[in-house]
Write a structure and sequence with these properties.
Number of helices: 8
CATH superfamily: P-loop containing nucleotide triphosphate hydrolases
Distance between the termini: 36 Å
Structural class: alpha/beta
Radius of gyration: 19 Å
Helix content: 25-40%
Oligomer: single chain
Number of strands: 10
Number of domains: 1
Shape: globular
Order of helices and strands: EEEHEEHEHHHEHEHEEH
Strand content: 25-35%
CATH topology: Rossmann fold
Length: about 260
């Protein structure tokens, strides 16, 4: 499969602190990549660079073989990259439908009047909720504050899927979720691939990663230390050793 996203030589400094050093990272078409590493490994910084949340110090980003200039989250969205953070970045006071279309609301009548087409938004929202696996009937007018954690994640994922994002980045999507809600999120990830999307899945729970990804990339101290781990041919214990750089006996890997 061809690369959808390719990051080359990505380096990021915060003052004198080096958060990323010469990182190469890629995601292929319709591929689910698990991005793993301890706290401070550089995962979140790499994703923030890709999503346009922070500027890169040096390096290049390529999208479908063309060099991309990603200086803001708006640029990333324009390139088909949608990032879903742990808190879902939803406005809790607004309805499900309003959150799905936030900043991209359809209008009716002359555009200069700015009249939102609430009926169209509600109709699309109802269909999207079923598509991402919410079986109970939740009115699209329901405020986000009334939803469970898993349902909020579903809304955020539905938004990314509806606007035809090529790459959906999920940053710790299963944190603080119950068992049923966690399985729902994992099912959403599987469904994203089936719908033609690629995903980057970041999680501390390696068992969740093993359930859904095609390939595992491990970062440590701002660098990629493994980029082609096949979860079907590896084990949780082996990946944990790569993450920590230590064997189960506390001996540095490679010694």
């Amino acid at each position: 499969m061809a690369d959808l996203i390719r990051m080359v030589g990505i380096t990021k400094y915060y003052g004198r602190v080096r958060a990323l050093e010469d990182v190469d990272f890629s995601v292929r078409e319709q591929e689910i990549v698990g991005l793993l590493g301890d706290n401070g490994a550089g995962k979140s910084t790499l994703i923030k660079v890709l999503s346009g949340a922070v500027p890169v110090t040096s390096g290049e980003i390529w999208v479908r073989g063309e060099k991309a200039e990603i200086r803001s989250t708006t640029d990333a969205i324009r390139y088909g990259i949608e990032t879903i953070y742990q808190d879902s970045a939803l406005v809790t006071q607004l309805s499900i439908a309003r959150n799905l279309f936030l900043g991209r609301e359809p209008v009716k009548g002359p555009r200069w009047l700015g009249r939102m087409d609430l009926a169209a938004m509600n109709e699309v929202a109802s269909g999207l909720l079923r598509k991402v696996g919410i079986e109970k009937r939740i009115p699209p007018e329901t405020p986000i504050a009334a939803l469970s954690g898993g349902e909020r994640q579903a809304v955020a994922i539905a938004r990314a899927m509806h606007f035809d994002s090529d790459l959906i980045v999920l940053d710790e999507p299963t944190n603080n979720l119950g068992v049923a809600e966690t399985q729902g999120v994992l099912n959403f990830v599987r469904g994203a691939r089936a719908s033609g999307h690629s995903c980057i899945f970041i999680a501390h729970n390696i068992h969740h990663v093993f359930q859904v990804v095609d390939r595992i990339v491990v970062m440590r101290r701002g660098r990629v230390v493994a980029d082609d781990i096949d979860p079907k041919a590896s084990s949780v214990e082996a990946v944990e050793q790569v993450i920590t750089g230590m064997t189960a006996e506390g001996v540095p890997v490679g010694e």
